[in-house]
Amino acid sequence: MTIANSLFLNSMERETQALARGLRRRDPDLLDRLIEQYQYRLLRYLLYLTGSREAAEDFFQETWVRVIDRGHQYNSKFKFETWLFTIARNLVIDFRRRKTTGSLDALSEPGEGQPMAEPAAPDNLSPADLAAAHEESERVWAALARLPAFYREVLLLRFQEDLTLEEIAAVVAAPLSTVKSRLYRGLSELREKLETEKV
Amino acid sequence: MSENDHERAERLILGDWVEGLSPTDHQWVNRHLETCARCSKFADSAEQALRRLRSVSVRGDPVLVRAIRLRLHARALELHERRVQLTMLWISCALSWVLGALSAPFVWRAFAWLGERSRIPAFAWQLGFALWWALPAVAVTVVFVMRRTRAENRL
Fold this sequence. Notes:
The complex is a heterodimer.
Chain A: H1 3-25, H2 28-50, H3 53-69, H4 80-99, E1 119-120, H5 127-145, H6 149-159, H7 165-172, H8 176-198
Chain B: H1 3-18, H2 23-35, H3 37-55, E1 57-58, H4 62-117, H5 122-154
Helix pairs in contact in B: 1-2, 1-3, 2-3, 4-5
């Protein structure tokens, strides 16, 4: 390991330790910063998980409430986002368990008939570009909506959140081999769906 | 080229994105792609699918963020107050236990005297003493159970 790497790891460790202390104190400024920093990522993760904007927003709120309630349980050895996504995931699963089964399989049908969320496009585009970007986003969402939730979830964590395979395994509470096979299968299915849709 | 070669190539193309490849596998798949139009197309479409996936962003909601901020501040305050109450409760428990321990011999004698005067059996006034001793603990337990039930109901 290079010196730069080790310095980076040390500073990251110090940062997560400070975060853990702040969470134990329930520091309001820290919570504001965390919401600011992670709002899009958490909402996007919940959207991928639930497939419904309305449900994602409900779980978004509950996740933050749980962050403040269980702040003392945060282990500074892990990245904050890993813990945050785990909380969000458990909330969704608990909710589903109360309704039906205790796994993400029940989320295979996104949003139970509700429309998927409208994705955002950058503000500096012309109206035509904006419309094209919107259409493209809708197409990708439509393809994602036809994937089972447990594929959508790992695809997001790997390719949008850039989590390592081990971190994903921690979030989804599954063995590394399961995570890998979901990624292979999810990516393959997404490719097929986007490909067929183009024709 | 056999079907097995194509299957292997497709798996390695996906594997490169999912977990990375060993130099040997990398070399093999690159050599295969140079000569196989079908797998090259597969590689292109996989790359494009990922690019499209990464391009998807989500619209934030400032109202939602403001609402959750307010809710969290209120919750932090509530939890802080609850913590203060809990600390007070523990201090009261400790004080009550110390006072109970210090006064136990006198109270025992008082119970014995009362028992003798009112001619009640020894086990009855001893039970009374035990209740007197256990009362603070029982009260605290009741408080804790009530708090927990209330918290669970709120969830």
